[in-house]
Design a protein that fits this description.
The chain has 253 residues and is α+β, with helices and mostly antiparallel strands. The protein contains 6 helices and 11 strands. The protein has a single domain, classed as DNA Polymerase III, subunit A, domain 2 (DNA Polymerase III, Chain A, domain 2, Roll), CATH 3.10.150.10. β6 and β7 form a beta hairpin. It starts with a strand and ends with a helix.
Length: 253
């Protein structure tokens, strides 16, 4: 079974917690889909279409339950990918699953193999997470942890580069307490990537618009007002009042 670099790069959202080995790796499903998650973010990439690749040995059946490859093996395989950026060579083959899991990469004149123990713990059920996010994606706003979202978007940017620099990502939003569904496509391999970011519990509150936001968002700003010049200075004592407002609006949290 071949895994493209796009497949391997779901590792960007995998858990770094070695005490939770079930998600401290990249799961490869029976069909070649790769999945990674950290409890807050999930990303899946579809199997790579056939691309020519040198014969590097037998490619065993990974079984109905698939296999979860530890992060250190995935990372080593990624580092072993050749400098030759031809898409066909930016792949790793699973060449062993018995007695360990092995990923093999191939350059112009060199074959690299990295072998280690597969993760024994079962990877969490993930298809239902994505399906439920799609089912609930009907409302228009959601609050998420921005670092979680950035991590997912960085992973998608690496896995799905866009030579045309449009960098399109498609987001489907559910209700305020529902996850955010994110989709994009690698234009070189044709693979689709799907991600999910869990919503942030705001305890029923929502960020209020201040006067500036209301003006900007309503399109009511004076288009003939002066622009440029120096930024107005803000007295330090203003910062305390801002903190008081924030504290009041969030109930002191």
């Amino acid at each position: 079974m071949k895994l493209s670099k796009t497949n391997l790069l779901v590792r960007e959202v995998a858990s770094s917690d070695k005490h939770d080995p079930a998600i401290n790796g990249v799961h490869v499903a029976k069909d070649g889909t790769t999945v990674a998650a950290n409890g807050r973010v999930l990303m899946a990439v579809e199997p790579v279409a056939y691309l020519p690749f040198p014969d590097v040995g037998e490619e065993p059946d990974i079984g109905d339950d698939g296999v979860t490859i530890p992060l250190h093996i995935v990372d080593k395989a990624i580092s072993n990918l050749p400098k030759d950026k031809r898409v066909a060579l930016q792949q790793a083959a699973i060449t062993r699953v018995s007695g360990g899991v092995e990923l093999t990469t191939c350059g112009k004149a060199q074959v690299d193999r990295v072998l280690g123990s597969a993760v024994r713990q079962r990877f969490p059920e993930w298809e239902g997470v994505i399906a439920e996010a799609r089912k609930r994606s009907s409302a228009t706003r959601v609050c998420v942890n921005r670092l979680d979202l950035i991590k997912l978007l960085v992973a998608m940017e690496k896995a799905c580069p866009d030579p045309g620099n449009k960098n399109a990502v498609f987001m489907e939003i559910g209700g305020e307490s529902d996850p955010l569904l994110v989709r994009c496509m690698n234009l070189q391999t044709g693979q689709h990537a799907v991600g999910v970011v869990g919503s942030l519990d705001t305890h029923g509150s929502w960020m209020e618009e201040n006067a500036w936001e209301e003006e900007i968002l309503s399109g009511g700003r004076d288009q003939e007002s002066d622009v440029g010049g120096e930024l107005p200075s803000v007295p330090l004592r203003k910062r305390k009042s801002v903190r008081k407002v924030i504290k009041k609006r969030t109930g002191g949290k």
